[in-house]
Amino acid sequence: LFGHEKGAFTGAVARRIGKFEEANGGTLLLDEISEMDVQLQAKLLRAIQEKIIDRVGGSKPVPVDIRIIATSNRDLAEAVAEKSFREDLLFRLNVVTLKIPPLRARSLDIEVLSQHFAKKYSEANGVANRPITEEAMGKLKINPWRGNVRELENTIHRAILLCQGDVIGPDAILMPDGTAIPDNANGDSHATGYASNGASLVGRKVAEVEQDLILNTLDHCLGNRTHAANILGISIRTLRNKLKLYSGDGIAVPLAGADHRAALRA
């Protein structure tokens, strides 16, 4: 946030200005401020109150004049009560408060965001932009989206990778575990679904369940490691390490890309 001077620490080969100086005369967004370390909160409070900062290793303060927008998915008043957030900093920041309702309460936003993410990930994966059918959009609108926009984005990305036709239908709208969004999706139905799925897994080891999930996803992606890693939410390196481990144990691993398709034709 505050930058450093040359020689301030090992590896500091040149002066580097921080975010405050970069935003001088403008606006600085502090995302998830509730997660900021308490010691850093003290420095932030000084920067806001006195409009000066100190670079690490610096000998004189640097004046800054910025507007701050801070976001949090936690109740900062509760964080103050828990002693994880400074009360004086909250008072200093809390000039205008905007409370954004959860995504599930903004159905129009779900539609606009879904279309945006569909276009974004179609381009990123080099495929034609596929429209979302009304039935699929209906499922998106009834899902509770506990992870809000991030969860919706991952779901649309997954749909782009799994979609087999020219449009994104309801069959491509899947949860991370591969299950479909129920027609009456809400908090209770999801809880019931997770409970029933969990019951079928009782008695199995975590490593076994993980192995099945990875191999089934890879097979679904026709051996494409990159697509499978995206769906699983892990890095391609982690996926390759897992597959190497499985192969070493004598477990059949789906072949990559063209080799997989050739094996299917054979």
Compact overview of the structure:
The chain is mainly alpha-helical and 266 residues long. It has helices at 19-22, 38-50, 76-81, 87-93, 107-124, 134-142, 148-162, 187-201, 206-220, 225-232, 236-248, 257-265; strands at residues 27-30, 52-53, 62-63, 67-70.
What would your notes on this structure say?
- Helix content is 50%, strand content 5%.
- It folds into three domains: 19-94, 3-Layer(aba) Sandwich (Rossmann fold), CATH 3.40.50; 106-172, Orthogonal Bundle (Helicase, Ruva Protein, domain 3); 206-249, Homeodomain-like (Arc Repressor Mutant, subunit A, Orthogonal Bundle).
- The chain has a two-stranded parallel ribbon. Strands 2-3 form a two-stranded antiparallel ribbon.
- The protein is mainly alpha-helical and 266 residues long.
- Helix 5 packs across helix 7 (148-162), helix 9 (206-220) crosses helix 10 (225-232) and helix 10 packs across helix 11 (236-248).
- The chain has helices at residues 19-22, 38-50, 76-81, 87-93, 107-124, 134-142, 148-162, 187-201, 206-220, 225-232, 236-248, 257-265, and strands at residues 27-30, 52-53, 62-63, 67-70.
Topology:
Blueprint: H1 19-22, E1 27-30, H2 38-50, E2 52-53, E3 62-63, E4 67-70, H3 76-81, H4 87-93, H5 107-124, H6 134-142, H7 148-162, H8 187-201, H9 206-220, H10 225-232, H11 236-248, H12 257-265
Parallel strand pairs: 1-4
Antiparallel strand pairs: 2-3
